[in-house]
Design brief:
The chain has 12 helices and 10 strands. It has 355 residues and is of the alpha/beta class. The protein has a 6-stranded mixed sheet, sandwiched between helices. It has a 4-stranded antiparallel sheet with strand order 2-1-4-5, with helices on one face. The longest helix has 37 residues, at 2-38.
Length: 355
């Protein structure tokens, strides 16, 4: 608050000076123009024109002054301080935390999460386990808490209630950057970077962003290799037209393949795919399903969807509703219980049986 008051006082003082100068000058010039009119040295039309030009010039000058003396200096200083704070916090935090080299098992124990400014919990008392080499499917309708669960799992949401145990140790006691490196993630809501194809895929594991072989391998796994073939400059083609009018526009389904390829970058130990086929048709989805097992051989994967296509590939299925895990088990076990998973399966099975 002291910093804020100091900034505001300084800004107010600096803005008053040019404002006073502007008013004095405009007053003097107005009197001078009127005198010229009274002496018949200037016509009324010239006076009106010059007076209008003067007021416009003063107004535009005032805008520039407001930018220079207003929020810009404050924001620049705060950005520099925030950047320094983040660097120091990450360095100090990670230096004090234990490193993680590989993945064995992760468990959620009564984990809940509530987003800021929301009354209810997006995730409620979740108990979940994932072992190395397992393929888990998290199913549920939109808004059931699937994405929140995945973000808590990979360490993106830290202010949760309950415990997350990774390799027998509390997640909050482990080096954050090491934890992030375990995961290859493709979220449903993704960013479309107006960069090259290579950079869009390589950002999934940025230390390999210049390795064309690894990027091509990731594209093949994610189905984005078919996109490369139609790009004018291959991996070096700009995607989108935000900053380059010659950039190539892609459909949402094509962008989703790029995001899927990002997740495959770098051979991460745990793959999290959030609605990976939401923007593709059932035929393309079946093609991705056919290759999926080969792509994650000897890997661990979490598949999040409201479709049943991935369910049969999973060793275990979690069904979520209103932020809670209400059912868990294998495909056959959940069909036998005839609960919510059974209802979802019955509603969708005709789509896949027709392919």
């Amino acid at each position: 608050m002291d910093e804020k008051i100091r900034f505001e006082n300084k800004s107010l003082f600096l803005s008053l000076i040019p404002d006073i100068i502007q008013k004095v000058l405009s007053g003097i010039l107005t009197v001078y123009f009127l005198r010229l009119v009274s002496l018949n040295k200037m016509s009324i039309g010239d006076f009106t024109f010059l007076f209008g030009m003067m007021m416009t010039l003063m107004a535009e000058s005032n805008k520039i002054i407001q930018i220079i003396t207003g929020d810009l200096p404050e924001n620049i200083e705060y950005i520099e301080r925030f950047d320094e704070f983040i660097k120091n916090t990450r360095k100090n935090t990670n230096d004090a935390r234990e490193g993680v080299s590989e993945f064995d098992e992760i468990k959620l124990k009564s984990v809940s999460y509530k987003y800021p400014n929301q009354k209810g919990y997006a995730l409620k008392s979740a108990n979940f386990s994932l072992r190395k080499g397992e393929v888990i499917s998290i199913l549920g309708y939109n808004g059931s808490g699937k994405t929140t669960l995945s973000k808590v799992l990979c360490g993106l949401l830290e202010d949760y209630e309950g415990e997350i145990i990774l390799n027998g140790k509390n997640l909050k006691d482990l080096n954050q950057e090491d934890v992030f490196r375990l995961f290859g993630v493709g979220f449903q809501e993704f960013t479309r970077y107006s960069l090259t194809m290579k950079e869009n895929v390589g950002v999934g594991k940025i230390e390999y962003i210049s390795n064309s072989d690894k990027i091509l391998q990731a594209c093949k796994k994610g189905g984005a290799d078919t996109i490369i073939d139609k790009l004018p400059n291959g991996l070096d083609s700009i995607l989108g037209k935000e900053y380059d009018s010659n950039g190539t526009e892609l459909s949402r389904g094509e962008w989703q393949k790029i995001v899927l390829s990002r997740a495959y970058m770098g051979n991460s130990e745990i793959l999290i795919l959030d609605e990976p086929t939401a923007s593709v048709d059932p035929i393309q989805e079946m093609e991705l399903l056919a290759n999926f097992r080969n792509n994650i051989e000897n890997k661990t994967a979490i598949l999040i969807s409201h479709r049943i296509g991935f369910a049969k590939l999973a060793d275990r299925i979690y069904f979520m509703e209103n932020g809670e895990i209400i059912e868990s088990g294998s495909h056959e076990q959940l069909l036998q219980t005839k609960g919510r998973y059974y209802e979802l399966y019955e509603n969708q099975k005709m789509i896949y049986e027709a392919q």
